[in-house]
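In the current project phase, we have settled on a layout for protein records. A sample record is reproduced below.
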Amino acid sequence: MAAAYSLLSTFLHSSSSSPPPPSPSFPSTNKKSISFPSSYKSLSSSPHSTRNNNSLILSLHHNKTRSLLLHNNLSATNKHFFSSALDSLLLLCASLALSVSLFVADVDSAAAFVVTTPRKLQSDELATVRLFQENTPSVVYITNLAARQDAFTLDVLEVPQGSGSGFVWDKDGHVVTNYHVIRGASDLRVTLADQTTYDARVVGFDQDKDVAVLRVDAPKDKLRPIPVGISADLLVGQKVFAIGNPFGLDHTLTTGVISGLRREISSAATGRPIQDVIQTDAAINPGNSGGPLLDSTGSLIGINTAIYSPSGASSGVGFSIPVDTVNGIVDQLVRFGKVTRPILGIKFAPDQSVEQLGVSGVLVLDAPANGPAGKAGLQSTKRDAYGRLILGDIITSVNGTKVTNGSDLYRILDQCKVGEKVTVEVLRGDHKEKIPVTLEPKADET
């Protein structure tokens, strides 16, 4: 508004200081012949009268000329005054209109007069900007709240104990994230892209694959499901994009390429291996967990879940769970609230312990009698009456596939179904045995 007033004062000053219009010039009276009425002609009969008559005629002529000049000057002055007043009025109206528009639009008065040229971007930059704008509404911010009791007042308070990312799966309000993002939470809150926050409830989770599904009661018009792609045909070197909330900074975009495929990492909750993991050099930091990894078309190809870093910050080695694995897990969690995965029902020794014995395989520490392996007759590790350790069965293969460690056993079981009968080959003492075992579903987690 100050700019508008400055503009108005400048124009008013220029209008008031403009030079007056030039006075009209009139031709000399001695170059015109003036005719008089006949009554004046009788006065010229004598020389004296002629002189008096001439004086009278000149006096009348000068008076007439003076009155004509005065009339013309007044007319010109009036025209100039009304013209200046009209210009000032129009300028005042324009200034008031500009001031009102600046006030209503809430725009900085200085910025209103700055003309900026549109920024020119390269085609790849435009594609990245478009991908971020189209997929950001699908990414959410998840806050993990834990109940804490005040030591002095004994009041129970909810305090944030962690945060992470997630993305909208469908219009029904399902949100997908990592299990370790929500682990140990008493309450969860989900913040959408428009900064509206909703309480979320847990639909189900899979600790072994580090996947969890939440649900929020948000209006359908605020939910933008992310487009789901496939991960089976990915190639090393293709561009990828990660969107998340690292360190609480919402909706951050990082870019990179696929550095490797078919990696294997262990679940943070159970230690069970996650196969076919995508390795990327896109920056993934604390808070990115649970966020989407996208290809250049904006389709989901993985969930950002872990990094390899001694410092805990991004070191250029990030891992994402492939979307083909996530798809089947989310479908089961949405339909049944749990993942039905077959198990042998055993506890086995760490791989390092078996290596020290000089054998290859999985050493059975415990096979409960009510579990699949216990029902089939697998033997557990125990001590005799003298306290000496008696090793249990060592699993060397399942269905003819060699087993050298726990990861191999999990990998084989992931290909099996509940109720399927498998042949387990074990080393018992100094001989091998083949034992048929019927796989059962994993017990429900609470």
Summary: Confidence is low (pLDDT under 50) at residues 1-5, 7-58, 109-115. Residues 139 and 167 are 4 Å apart (CA to CA).
